[in-house]
Design goal:
The structure holds two protein chains of two kinds.
Chain A (H helix, E strand, L loop, with lengths): L1 E10 L2 E10 L4 E5 L6 H9 L6 E6 L2 E2 L10 E4 L11 H11 L4 H15 L14 H13 L5 E5 L7 H18 L2 E6 L2 H7 L2 E6 L2 E2 L1
Parallel strand pairs in A: 3-8, 3-9, 6-7, 7-8
Antiparallel strand pairs in A: 1-2, 1-4, 4-5, 9-10
Chain B lengths: L2 H29 L2 H9 L1 H34 L5 H13 L2 H13 L1 E2 L2 E2 H8 L8 H25 L3 H9 L4 H12 L1 H17 L2 H6 L10 H10 L3 H30 L1
Antiparallel strand pairs in B: 1-2
Helix pairs in contact in B: 1-13, 2-13, 3-7, 3-10, 4-7, 7-10, 8-9, 10-13, 12-13
Classes of the chains: A alpha/beta, B mainly alpha.
């Protein structure tokens, strides 16, 4: 479950206040709104990458408002993906588990499982340079989901993809939703994405969620 | 202007500088005889200066990189109180006349503060005298070289996308883990460049060394001071020969570092 209670945020001269919404556990919510209205800022606040001026953020039964990003248990895929240029695809999938000092056997099994789910087994030894847009997107998704986070945040994940790849990604995101049951908040301004993927649509209009 | 004219103009303007460097080196080369090189290299004080130059420049470059990496990262990533002041202070060793920098180091180590003196404390209590000794050579080189290394590392981190470190933090990294695992590996080329610049600056450093470390043969003499000492006794041939040895050393180090950098990237 993701819940924002009267959250206030500011970024330079831009600010949002009184943001409140709730996404139930296992739900796939789509947050829509025009460019520059603060959708990404809200996602960053949920991740812990942006300071919250007012209000509370709850994930499940935990108040995470003051927790550092790494303790929130959130899988995050930013719009620019921000893959790690010095790591291979397999190292991306293993990254969060290595940080958590998981046993190597468990890491290897999880990497293989994620690679199979995302159809990137053949790419595991490659570095990220030269991957296509769709392949990069799958690696970023795998990295975010590798440590079994209860919450997944996606920031316009399909905006840079061609039509055919986007259709593949719709199937993949639906498969991830069904297989993992992860609570998802997906930011987009595409009606098609919202209708295809969303259980619930939230709209950010005039600084408020409607 | 046609394209060929444009490229010709660029080539002529840029080439004039390259030509200046080449003819300067050629003039040095033709001024000396091979025997001048051999004679210079056989002298024990020159052999000492070559060794001290290699060792001191390398230590100064390592120290510069050690300081430049965290400071470059801080300046690139964070807005903290007094940041502009730190930014300005870093440039002072670059803009200060070299002799003034040497003088400042000399005063720092010898100023009496309530009967306490840094040099006396280091020498008598720690058994580590600095002024007019090898550590003074390294400190004089480091004080200027570090400023160039910091600038290089700051630009390096400016060019690395901080979003990757943000994502690493959402995956469970602390800030230090994100720095060590994500930012630092990406900065390897910049670190190599910073090391190279610091090494080259240290090789050419002369003013602060002369004031703070002196130019004592077989003790604090590095190649830049050798040139000065040979000139001061009117031995122009030896001064030019040693200058060319410095050019050869600099080119060798630059080529080796570049090869290492290429190997690391591949």
């Amino acid at each position: 479950m993701i819940e924002l209670q009267n959250v206030g945020l500011s970024m330079g001269e831009f600010s949002l206040s009184g943001i409140s919404f709730r996404v139930e556990a296992g739900q796939y919510a789509v947050l829509m709104g025009r460019t520059g209205r603060g959708k990404t800022t809200i996602l960053e606040a949920v991740c812990g990458l942006r300071h919250v001026k007012a209000g509370r953020i709850l994930l499940g039964d935990r108040d995470v408002t003051d927790l550092p990003p790494g303790e929130r248990g959130i899988g995050y895929v930013p719009q620019d993906l921000a893959l790690f240029p010095t790591l291979t695809v397999a190292e991306h999938l293993a990254f969060a588990l290595k940080i958590r000092k998981s046993p190597q056997k468990l890491i290897d099994e999880r990497v293989a499982e994620m690679a199979e789910l995302l159809s990137i087994t053949g790419l595991l030894k490659r570095r990220i340079q030269g991957l296509s847009g769709g392949e990069s997107q799958r690696v970023a998704l795998g990295r975010a989901l590798s440590f079994h986070p209860p919450v997944l945040l996606l920031d316009e994940p399909l905006s840079a993809l061609d039509e055919a790849t986007r259709a593949e990604m719709y199937d993949l995101l639906a498969r991830i939703r069904d297989r993992t049951g992860v609570t998802t908040l997906h930011v987009t301004h595409s009606n098609e994405e919202a209708k295809t993927l969303g259980d619930r649509i939230l709209r950010l209009e005039h600084g408020k969620i409607v | 202007m046609p394209d060929w004219g444009f490229f010709l103009l660029l080539g002529l303007i840029g080439g004039s500088y390259v030509l200046l460097v080449v003819i300067m080196l050629a003039a040095d080369f033709f001024y000396t005889e091979p025997s001048d090189f051999l004679e210079s290299l056989q002298r024990p004080e020159i052999q000492y200066a070559v060794k001290l130059t290699l060792v001191s420049c390398t230590i100064a470059a390592i120290l510069s990189l050690w300081v430049a990496t965290p400071l470059g990262y801080l300046l690139s990533r964070f807005r903290f109180p007094g940041r502009w002041l730190v930014d300005t202070l870093i440039d002072i060793p670059v803009v200060l006349p070299p002799l003034v920098l040497g003088l400042s180091l000399l005063i720092l180590f010898h100023i009496e503060i309530g009967g306490w003196q840094l040099e006396r404390w280091l020498r008598d209590d720690l058994g580590f005298p600095v002024t007019y000794r090898v550590p003074a050579v390294i400190l004089a080189q480091f004080s200027v070289a570090a400023a160039f290394a910091i600038r290089t590392m700051r630009v390096t981190f400016d060019q690395i996308n901080p979003r990757a470190e943000d994502v690493a933090r959402t995956l469970g990294c602390s800030r230090s883990q994100a720095f060590m695992r994500i930012a630092l590996p990406q900065s390897s080329r910049g670190m190599m460049a910073a090391f190279t610049i610091a090494w080259a600056r240290s090789l050419g450093e002369f003013g602060p060394i002369l004031v703070f470390a002196g130019a004592t043969r077989m003790r604090t003499e590095v190649l830049s001071t050798t040139v000065f000492l040979e000139l001061s006794i009117g031995n122009l041939e030896a001064a030019v020969a040693i200058s060319l040895i410095m050019v050869a050393m600099a080119m060798l180090v630059l080529v080796v570092l570049r090869m290492l950098g290429t190997e690391m990237r591949s």
